[in-house]
Design brief:
The complex is a heterodimer of chains A (about 70) and B (about 170).
Chain A: E1 2-7, E2 13-17, H1 20-57, H2 62-69
Antiparallel strand pairs in A: 1-2
Chain B: E1 5-12, E2 19-23, E3 31-38, E4 49-54, E5 62-69, E6 74-82, E7 85-88, E8 101-108, E9 116-123, E10 133-140, E11 149-152, E12 163-169
Antiparallel strand pairs in B: 1-12, 2-11, 3-8, 3-12, 4-7, 4-11, 5-6, 5-10, 8-9, 9-10
Classes of the chains: A alpha+beta (about 70), B mainly beta (about 170).
């Protein structure tokens, strides 16, 4: 993996291989991003399930409820 | 483009890279603007992030307010005492092939002695049922002049063809 550094004073562009520490940081950030995304998807799924449960209590389909609220 | 915009530096990636840093930014302008067109290689993602650090610092003094919408859903949130600013860089492998998110980061008074505020806006290019727009207010609670900006692909890589342009503005 590499990083790009653009020196604005000279215009020079350098491609630098990441150090083992930087790779470890990236891997940690990637793992956190994945965990955050899964958490967000689960939260969204729970929210949807809650809406559908309310719709079911009212005897409506999810589509009917959405139409009513639009 | 207004005549007050001056291109300071740019980069178009010829191969993927984890980050792009603009260093040694001159202090001769009033504001900075970074315009980009980028895509992440984050697997299975259509909602990737980009994180930004200033002056090489990852001290916990960044805060972000985020507003985001896809055409189907919308969300808003705020985080403080972060080690970076994070913005929506949505295009990834789950997006339409060969599409990129285009965005802009505006940094007013980057050379002044106040805390550093900035704004971000991005739009996803995507031929699917959802295409995200993200808008953010960011703050770094440090008064140092900004001399470098690092755009990091949040643990992944910006793909080849992603491009980044840094402009200075005078008399804006």
């Amino acid at each position: 993996m590499e990083k790009v550094i653009v020196d604005c004073s000279t215009g020079e562009q350098t491609v630098v291989p990441l150090t083992p520490e930087e790779i470890a940081e990236l891997e940690a950030a990637a793992a956190k991003a994945e965990a955050d995304r899964i958490a967000a998807e689960e939260a969204e799924a729970a929210k949807q399930a809650e809406k559908e449960a309310i719709a079911a209590k009212l005897g409506l389909t999810k589509e009917e409820l959405l139409k009513l609220l639009s | 483009m207004p005549a007050t915009y001056t291109l300071i530096a740019s980069n178009t990636l010829s191969s993927s890279a984890a980050s792009v840093t603009f260093s040694a930014i001159p202090g001769t302008y009033t504001d900075l603007i970074i315009k980009y067109s980028a895509r992440s290689d984050e697997s299975a993602s259509n909602t990737s992030l980009m994180d930004v650090t200033l002056n090489g610092s990852s001290a916990a003094n960044y805060s972000v307010t985020r507003l985001r919408g896809s055409g189907i859903s919308a969300a808003s949130g705020r985080t403080s005492n972060q080690t970076y600013l994070y913005f929506g860089l949505n295009n990834g492998p789950s997006s339409t092939s060969n599409t990129f998110t285009n965005g802009e980061i505006y940094i007013p008074n980057y050379n002044g002695s106040a805390n550093k505020c900035l704004s971000h806006f991005s739009a996803q290019e995507n031929n699917q049922t959802e295409a995200y727009i993200d808008t953010n207010a960011g703050l770094r609670s440090v008064t140092d002049a900004i001399t470098s900006v690092k755009l990091n692909c949040n643990g992944f890589n910006f793909v080849s063809g992603s491009s980044f342009f840094l402009y200075g503005i005078k008399n804006s």
